[in-house]
Design brief:
Serine Threonine Protein Phosphatase 5, Tetratricopeptide repeat; globular; 54% helix; 4 domains; 24 helices; single chain
């Protein structure tokens, strides 16, 4: 009989979980009785003839915490950790703890927080509201709770404002994509015939420091190089505030100056919840490779993510820019990375958007049409079928028939 799952700490850490797996591996190889018993209980495929690997130890740790795979445990931990780009003055101090409690299904905490501030029912991070998190967690009880206090089933969502390939990213649309039929019925009843919502623009409270940063952003948006240098001379450290806009507006000379004068390419800026600088450099029909290379030369990882766990390869796959995808893969981008919001690989993003040329290219570079740990609703084929991209469906089915078991 299996032991009940151990609860995760209130603030789980992937660093600590990886350490637990390494310690288990060490103890198992030392023939520690407790370690041997843990492995036998949670990883019965391990036999005396097969040497335990770190991946095996990670699977054991994941199963001890009630997750079927290390990938699912990692996904959960990343989903409840506050994003590095979270802009507290803009989104609110209580917002992330509330969204994390919603995602985890912690109804006690959610009720307590709502009793103190009922506006949290429509709190927001990057256009995502609490119902988005309840749907992502598959929490039907939480969906009911939030609807009862006025949460919006038609909140526009991330790609409702940003990706032009799919405009409907409401909680209702996400529930349909995930095939959560009971939640769909609840949200449809709450939505009725109302039009989709458009979130009001949020503005952080003004402070002298923030006003200075905003001024530097405006200067770099316009590529006023002399004024930017003067600002840096007067205010050491302000270069960081200008880097995002200099990249976004395609000012390579200014980007170089800012990096030389102290801006850190690896420091998340407040708008990186949507697009990182690397995403901005590559997501356009004519990618800005000079800027992208500068960012990599200053430490940016090609697999860095925005606040929602999306990599730049996800973004360009959805946009269909094959040359940018090739550039990233040639520099180490992970072709099978999964984002947190749609739990999908770059190939699935291309399929979702109907980008047949991108699908062909990613398949040619080794992307798998079927992976053993895909969520059934999040496979490339599932996305293409839901969006009625028949050419893409045909390409993926052909690949799935010839692809060896993952």
């Amino acid at each position: 009989m299996s032991s009940p799952a151990s609860p995760l700490p209130a603030r789980p850490s992937l660093v600590q979980l990886r350490k637990q797996a390494k310690e288990l591996l060490r103890d198992y190889r030392a023939n520690d009785r407790a370690a041997l018993a843990r492995v036998q209980e949670h990883h019965p495929r391990i036999t005396s003839e097969r040497r335990l690997t770190l991946a095996d130890a990670q699977l054991v740790v994941a199963r001890e915490y009630g997750f079927s795979s290390w990938a699912k445990l990692k996904h959960h931990v990343e989903s409840v950790q506050r994003p590095a780009d979270f802009d507290e003055p803009l989104w609110g101090r209580a917002t992330w703890p509330f969204l994390a409690a919603v995602y985890k299904g912690d109804e006690t905490t959610v009720r307590q927080m709502l009793a103190r501030d009922s506006s949290l029912a429509r709190a927001e991070y990057a256009y995502l509201q609490p119902l988005h998190y309840a749907v992502r967690g598959g929490r039907i009880g939480m969906v009911r709770l939030l609807l009862d206090v006025g949460a919006d089933p038609l909140a526009e969502g991330w790609s409702g404002r940003f990706g032009d390939e799919i405009r409907d990213d409401t909680p209702l649309a996400r529930a349909r994509d995930r095939e959560l039929n009971e939640i769909v019925a609840l949200l449809e009843a709450a939505a009725g015939d109302k039009p989709r919502s458009v979130a009001p623009e949020r503005k952080a409270p003004s402070t002298p420091e923030r006003e200075l940063e905003d001024e530097m952003m405006r200067i770099c948006h316009r590529s006023e190089i002399d004024r930017a240098i003067a600002m840096i001379d007067r205010h050491p450290g302000i270069a960081q505030a200008g880097l995002y806009e200099a990249v976004h507006q395609n000012h390579p000379q200014l980007v170089r100056i800012l990096l030389e004068r102290g801006a850190k390419a690896t420091t998340p800026w407040r708008w990186a919840c949507w697009y990182t600088p690397l995403m901005h450099s590559l997501r356009y029909p004519k990618p800005r490779y000079d800027i992208a290379q500068m960012l990599l030369d200053h430490g940016v990882d090609p697999n860095e993510t925005n606040g929602m766990g999306m990599t730049t390869l996800h973004i360009v796959a959805g946009q269909g820019t094959v040359d940018a995808a090739r550039w990233l893969l040639d520099r180490g981008a992970d072709i099978h990375s999964r984002d947190r919001e749609f739990e999908s690989t770059p190939l699935a993003w291309a399929a979702r958007a109907g980008r047949a040329d991108m699908v062909r290219f990613l398949l040619s570079r080794g992307a798998r049409a079927v992976r053993a740990d895909d969520e059934p609703w999040a496979t490339p084929i599932a996305w293409a079928r839901r969006r009625n991209h028949l050419e893409v469906v045909s390409l993926l089915l052909k690949e799935a028939r010839t692809d060896p078991a993952p």
